Each structure stands twice: as structure tokens, then as C-alpha cells.
Amino acid sequence: MEKQTAYASSERRRLEVSAQTHGIVCAHHHLYSSLVRGMPAPKQDSKSFLDILNNIWWRVDAALDNEMIYWSAMLGATEALMSGTTCIIDHHESPNCIEGSLTTIAEACKTVGVRVNTCYGVTDRWDDNQHLHSKVSPLSEMTSAAKRGLDECDQYLSAGGTGMVGVHAAFTCSDETLTAAAELAKKHSVGVHIHVAEGVDDIQSGARLESLAQDNWLLIHAVHLDRYLKGRVVHNARSNMNNSVGYAKPTQRSNKILLGTDGIGADMIEEARIAYARLREFDVSAEPTTVWQWLENSLELFPGAKNDVVTFDYDFADSPWHAAFTTNMTAIDVEVAGEKVLVDRQPTRVDLAEIRAKANEQALRLYERLT
To answer: Quick check: pTM over 0.85?
Structure first.
């Protein structure tokens, strides 16, 4: 009886210091990156962003198989849920496991209870002989790998999957491939989800995409974008700092700004805090409401999140001025489409310990392939 009373008292205190928000959206994620944390450092030093892509990310992409993709998505989606993120816009690449990869990601997220919009990032950097090229001539012919990537997007969307047409970046695609991706997106009445001018190696992307971009496109990073392009710009503050590519200056663009993580988890409140700190370094007069509006803008892509309910263990969690400076608030309970998918910080549909164990197994398999 004493234990029950103590529990009831604890529960009352918890509710007294909690606040509810709607579901949160991560506007740009790479769910497969969930397996990369803790992997051995590459043998080659990376002195530029292109080195980072060559030495780390493009090697990871090529090593992925279906089981790795599934468990990385399970882990990423579960951790997203535990931070109050109920919707993920994912960008995927696995050149040696293209067919069916988007369905695998969607099934994993559905199992956890998180909504996902995913796509396959087509690229011509893998030629027809599976040789990797850091840069691709705009005049090159579309490769078979790019065609397979477009086919994966086409089949996934045709089957009713929620997603977009993905493109890695203009500097790894021919003009033929960029045009084909834009046409496929129009066919399905969706946008193109593409990295744009993240580094200086993609400085020509604005000129190449200007005649193709549409209002429903997602333009990721836009750090070195030299002109206005139609579409929403997705800012990834922490990733840009981590890769030392520069500051995107999102407040100086007329596009609607959204917020993503570029694969560094899906804790969007933490991402917003970092984005705000970076913004303040650029403009000391900036206010937290600017960055929290970027979070709100993502609801246009996932309107269902407005009806999701996230309960945080902080009574001012719904205030940007509080949330921007309160680093220890966490999600307690989450409801998605009326279902409680997180209760007392634990997922209800899946076993967190099992997911972490399975994901660790796949991470070790991935590391072996990278050595």
C-alpha cells in the first residue's frame, strides 16, 4: 500500500511539471547512419568535406545490406520517438542494396510507430563497372546505378509509399539524371529531396538546378548556394559544423526554412538549441522563436503530426524561450494517431534492449566490411 501511495505521489509530481506539444518532425535524416556511431576511424586523414565523403560516408553506403538497413532504421526510429520526434523525412543510399531498401525502411518505422517519408538518393558516382567517382561530368550518360535508384523511388511511390524522389547532389549526377529525377517527381506529384551546395565542390548546383527546382523540393544544406532556388531549405546546423563546410545563413534566404539533423540522431529539440546557438553567433539579436518556427514549418509536410501528443518532463517545454536553454528536458509519453507508442520513456511496440542488441550486431558487421 505504501509503494502504491508513493507511486501515485510520484506520478502527480510528474504530471505537475510536464507540458505537452504536438509531434515533432525531423526534416532531413539518414537513418542508416544509426550504425556508424563508434566505428573505427578511417585509415586516411580527411582534410576536406570531399575527403570525408570518400573516406567515410561513401564507403558506408557501399557496405550496407538489407539487414543493416532494417536494424539501423529500427534504432533510429526508436530513438526519434524517445525524443518526441514522430515523423522523419529520410534520405537513403545503399548502392549494393538498392531494390526494396525503401520498403525495408518504411516497415521498420511502421513497426516502431513513427511516420516516415523516405527516398533513394540517386547518383552517377558509381559507374556501370562499380567504380567510384568523386565528381561526375554534367554531360555524362546516366549510369545503371542511377537508373536503379530512380526505379526504386518509382516502385516505392507507385506502391503507395510515402516519400519523394531522392538525389544525392548535383556534383555527383549528370544533367540527364537530374532531369530524369525531376520528371519522376512530377509523375508522382512529389518533390525532389536533394543535397544542394553543402560544400564548395557543389558550387555549381544552383546554376544546374535553377530550371528544374519546384516549390515542393527539399533543398538540403544550401551552405554555398549562390542564388534563389524554388523549394524549402533544410538547415542542418550541427552537421555543417561537424563537417566544417561553413554557415548556411538561413535567415538571409527568402525560402521557407526547415530543420534537420543530417543523420546525427533525431532529437529535434536539441538540434534546435544548437541551431539557435549558431544563429546567435551569426546574429546576436536573433531570438529562439526564429528557430522554433523552422520546426513548425516542417508540419506542412507531415500535417498529421499536429494531432500527435508529446509530453515532456518540463512544464515550459512548449515555450521556445525556455526550451532553448533547458538541456535536460526529455519526452515522457508520446501518442501517434491516438496510440500510446511511448509510455514512461519506453517504446510500447518494440523492445528497446533487443533493438540496441540487434543494431550493435549489424554495426559490427558493417565495421568488418570497412576494414
So the answer is: yes
